[in-house]
């Protein structure tokens, strides 16, 4: 199996995952390649290539609906990322982590977990970039 970190390191794949997450939160039962192409503005061959990688790493599932294939996000593989990031977040924030007020309607469990995992990954990426700039003296 491909390393999950290598899979999500690609920006296009993260964009696809975020799109699938949004659509799942909106109640969609799957998203077609043509919908991904239309919403992200990237070519069909590029989308298909990235969906293959996401499918092989089990980050997306696919089901057939007639001649269409509908893709959905699978959040379970992202738990590896979550487990890896948590010690860094605890170390960085400890008990002083900011409280966030979520006044909107709650997301479905799978979508909420995926959003949390992606948020943590984004925070980690920001930290890595900031640390790199500090080391460079910028």
Quick check: average pLDDT?
A: 82
Helix content: 55-70%
Which residues sit in consecutive blocks of at least 5 with pLDDT less than 50?
Answer: none
Strand content: 5-15%
**Structural class category:** mainly alpha
Number of strands: 3
- In one word, what is the shape? globular
Termini Cα gap: 37 Å
- What is the overall number of helices? 6
Query: Measured on Cα atoms, how large is the radius of gyration?
Result: 17 Å
Largest sheet features: 3 strands, antiparallel
Structure report:
By secondary structure, the chain is mainly alpha-helical. Helices cover 61% and strands 10% of the residues. The chain has six helices and three strands; from the N terminus they run H-H-E-H-H-E-E-H-H. It has helices spanning 4-8, 11-25, 33-40, 44-56, 79-93, 109-136; strands at 31-32, 60-65, 68-73. Strands 1-3-2 form a three-stranded antiparallel sheet. A hairpin with a 2-residue loop joins strand 2 and strand 3 (68-73). Helix 2 (11-25) packs antiparallel against helix 6 and helix 5 packs across helix 6 (109-136). The longest helix has 28 residues, at 109-136. The radius of gyration is 17 Å and the shape is globular. The mean pLDDT is 82.
